[in-house]
Amino acid sequence: MLFNSYIFIFGFLPLALALTYLAGRFLQPLAKLTLTLLSLGFYAFWRPVHLPILLFSIVFNYVVGGIIQRAYAAGKERTVRVWMVLGLLVDLSMLGWFKYANFVAENVASLTGVPDPLPHIILPLAISFFTFQKIAYLIDSARGDARPMSFLDFSLFAAFFPQLIAGPIVHYKEVVPQIQARTFGRLISRNLLVGLTIFAIGLFKKTVIADTLASQANPLFEASGAHAFNLASGWMAALLYTFQLYFDFSGYSDMAIGLGRMFGVKLPLNFHSPLRAASVIEYWRRWHMTLQRFIVAYIFQPLSVPLNRYAAEKGLQGWGAFGVAVAVPTFVTFVAVGVWHGAGWTFVAFGVMHAIYICVNEAWREHRKRVRRKLRKQGKTLGEPAAPERVSYHLLTLLGVIYANVMFRSKSVGDAMEVWAGMSGFRGLDLSLPAALGWGVWSALALAFGLVFLAPNTQQIMGRFDPAFNWREWKDAAPAPIRWTWRPDTAGLVFAGVVLIAGVLMVQRGRAIFLYFNF
Amino acid sequence: MRPLHAFRKTLAILGVALAVAVGLSLLPENPYQRWKLLAGTIHARSQWIYERSHFDPQPVDVVFLGPSRIGAGVDAPRLGAALAARGLPSNVVNFSLPEAGRNINWIIFRELMQTKRPKLVVIGVMEKPSRFGHSTYKFLAPRADIVNPGYPTDFNYLSDLVYLPYRQAELFVADLAPGVLGPTKTFDPAHYRGHTVNTTGDVVLPGGGIKHASYPATMSELMRGVNKWNAGIVPPILPRKYADYEFGDERYYIRKIVTLAHARGAQVTFLFLPYYTGATELQEQDFYDQFGPTWNAGFVADHSEMFADYGHLTSPAADDLTDWLVAPVAEALQGKAQPR
């Protein structure tokens, strides 16, 4: 079921709110059971045949997590390690089979000439998201960060529909204490008001902005095999898709956060104006934040720490140390990020591109550190970058992101290179655009540009109402040139109502799937 | 600290949203632009239907309504020529649209009847009627018909209703800037398709592809389509006495079409075209019998060579069927007894 569908907005959501809060009036566990069953129904609505996979994942990880937690409490480190590895193997094998088996088999077949033996495996909805959530739970259990809980609480944590399909990828400590709180299941009107407003903004971002951009970007990319991109059409396609991807996924994340809030659960932020970042490292801290922290915590750091130790033991210095301690874990991490998005060479290339960006960024930071040290020795200080330099950082970051997004969107590496050739002027300096792109493309781009670079993001708009689990960590970061916060006064209520109905009405243009549902 | 009154304010947001939706629904529109909303879709013929009804003074003597089977099966110009050869009224139009749903046939027929006085109305029927209204109803029906479809079991009611504000806003903007922010609102004779249009044969799809209909489908293609169609058939769920509710769309709008036709002196006949290997008996035969005879072309059901896909005739088969229709249509126009 899509958040941007009438069956959800007018059917499932009001029903889920009514039943959960009605049940909560009598008994909190009944509210949890109701919401869990509704969440499973929400998942099954798409493809019921895949529900057993989710159910298996819930039961298996609950059992294994429980064993790990008990072993941790008893100080049995070896048992903890054995069960964690077993749990991770099963989770990753399941993800690997459904997501990557076809890709591997196809490539092996093309290399060896042996026919591909596998039938087409249909990817279960959200498997990348719910598997990562379970992996985080097992590791949290092994680190003593997750405590034993009832099967009902775990099921709700694992199946809670606002975050089930496309995140945010949540940790035990973020959600479980909230669903175990005494207030869970009780109707708190403030949560409804704030949640509805955040949901409305997210819906608007998706149906009004992202879908408009998609209607312009898709024909350009779909026709990429049929025509050569020139300078204008290449940039137009790349810009449109970059903005589409941002508004699509951040809109979805806002909706998820708003829905969670309606049920009394604050979910963590997933976006914080990443396109305004002044470096790629900062970009990744603010783009798909819950995936990024997962990758950093469970892939980058476990690799980086021993490699740093190894570099120190070997006495490596300079670029050698940089290569071992930074470049290697960065490449592994970002190839994993790329491949997590999908089984395909474009995603691998996307990951490699960002790994290169990050390495360049880290090298630049290292260079500035050295300059700073050198100047300090001379009794001088390295000043903050001047405005032109800061602008150049922003532009360079955006440029890198846009080029990588072309790879992310294209059907093949060859298609991406066609777009890049156009963007880079290798097809001449032709500035003509396809006739099908009407005036609407400029207004859509202008709106997207204004919102991305000038306007506050959703959590900044809702900043008075503690809009997300980790809002306090981010409330001072990346302030927008235009500062505006929502208030529940007449203007604020009209704003929310208009944004809500605009989002609802634009669903009519076609319930385009969220881009991240593919992952 | 002032109380938040959050629940009241949540309701206020929903109230504002509702008020905006109602306000948008009441915006003025140009009906011609409404009938152009389906340009670029498989239902683009709606524009010609409106133009034929309102901008072409040529009378309409025989009108065919119904789903795509009727469109693919009845060659209106060929039928008109045959009637003309017999010295009979020969202005025949095929106003069928792809997909089932009787409500759209009513909207089309009522539009036609604003300006024309057909002598014969032929309604295409299927072995089992759809329970649902037509997918284009929300695009083409006037707002009053969407707000109040007139019968209680319109299963598409909410989805049609919720589309209304968006449609009216779109039409309002199009009315303000025709040709820029929406379709034009002036009739262009240069692009008019003519008094009658042959709806049989190859179909040009919105993406530019062609659905061929000049030769029969292979047996495997036919059976794939037939199996899919059969799998989608849901037999009546409620007892027959509740058929007016379960099949409200079919029954309510057939009655409305018949009532209006009879009020304007037109005869009503039903035409049944089966799908390949499909049943040749009609679930609603008793119901149709109250209003007029049924011309049952069940004889095509076993002829795979006549089908371009599971349910639509090839153009040669459509010629044969059209020729078969000449006699009953001629007799109907002459007021003679009609075959069943």
List the helices and strands and how they pair.
The complex is a heterodimer of chains A (519) and B (340).
Chain A: H1 6-26, H2 28-44, H3 51-73, H4 77-112, H5 127-142, H6 151-159, H7 161-164, H8 172-179, H9 189-222, H10 231-262, H11 280-286, H12 289-313, H13 318-341, H14 345-377, H15 387-409, H16 413-423, H17 440-453, H18 458-461, H19 471-474, H20 490-506
Chain B: H1 6-25, H2 31-34, H3 45-54, E1 62-65, H4 68-73, H5 76-85, E2 92-94, H6 102-113, E3 120-125, H7 137-140, H8 143-147, H9 157-176, E4 203-204, E5 210-211, H10 219-232, H11 243-246, H12 248-263, E6 267-272, H13 285-289, E7 294-296, H14 315-333
Structural class, from secondary structure content of chain B? alpha/beta
Radius of gyration of chain A: 24 Å
Strand percentage of chain B, roughly? 5-15%
**How many individual helices of chain B?**
14
In the predicted model, the low-confidence regions of chain A spanning at least 5 consecutive residues are none
Oligomeric form of this entry? heterodimer
| Strand tally of chain A | 0
Order of helices and strands of chain A: HHHHHHHHHHHHHHHHHHHH
**What's the end-to-end separation of chain B, in Å?**
81 Å
The largest sheet of chain B, given as strand count, sense and whether it forms a barrel, is: 5 strands, parallel
Silhouette of chain B: globular
How big a fraction of the residues of chain A is strand? under 5%
Order of helices and strands of chain B: HHHEHHEHEHHHEEHHHEHEH
The tally of domains of chain A stands at 2
- Main β sheet profile of chain A: none
Most residues in contact: chain pair: A-B, 23 and 25 residues
Tally of strands of chain B: 7
From the alpha carbons, calculate the radius of gyration of chain B and give it in angstroms: 22 Å
Calculate the terminal CA-CA distance of chain A, rounded to whole Å: 16 Å
Share of helical residues of chain B:
40-55%
Unreliable stretches of chain B, pLDDT < 50, 5 or more residues?
none
